[in-house]
């Protein structure tokens, strides 16, 4: 990782991903994704600490980023796949099911609708 200031004197972070993957500290078992609904565009800086731990509103999926189970839910944006199949592929436990279901809608977002006028 490299910490720098740009020409406008703003701090910046640069990651050398290739070095990270070849490091003895690279451990796929530590990879996870938090899924949650976003109510506004105002979100905290992604690298800030401390991170909010289990709070009930977030669904943490503990799968390596290279796992094929990630492809299915993100592909749903462009193709109709069955919810039960996606839930199974993502290995959603029974106690996580209601939080997972809340992430989906049957309505097409207006930005994806053909010929929709911006509001």
Helix coverage percent: 10-25%
Q: How many E-type strands? A: 4
User: What kind of assembly state do the chains in view correspond to?
Assistant: single chain
Which runs of at least 5 residues are low in confidence (pLDDT < 50)? Answer: none
Rg over CA atoms, rounded to whole Å, is: 18 Å
Summed over residues and divided by their number, the pLDDT gives a mean of 78
The SSE order reads EEHEEHHH
Strand content: 5-15%
Through-space gap between termini = 41 Å
Main beta sheet, described? 2 strands, antiparallel
Continuous helix count: 4
Strand order, sheet with most strands? 1-2
Structural class by secondary-structure content: alpha+beta
Which descriptor suits the 3D outline?
globular
Helices and strands, with pairings:
Blueprint: E1 2-5, E2 11-14, H1 17-21, E3 33-35, E4 59-61, H2 71-75, H3 83-89, H4 97-101
Antiparallel strand pairs: 1-2, 3-4
Describe this structure as you would to a colleague.
This protein has a domain at 28-37 and 53-101. The protein is α+β, with helices and mostly antiparallel strands and 119 residues long. It is globular, with a radius of gyration of 18 Å. The longest helix is centred in the last third of the chain and has 7 residues, at 83-89. It has helices at residues 17-21, 71-75, 83-89, 97-101, and strands at 2-5, 11-14, 33-35, 59-61.
Structure summary:
By secondary structure, this protein is of the alpha+beta class. The protein contains 4 helices and 4 strands.
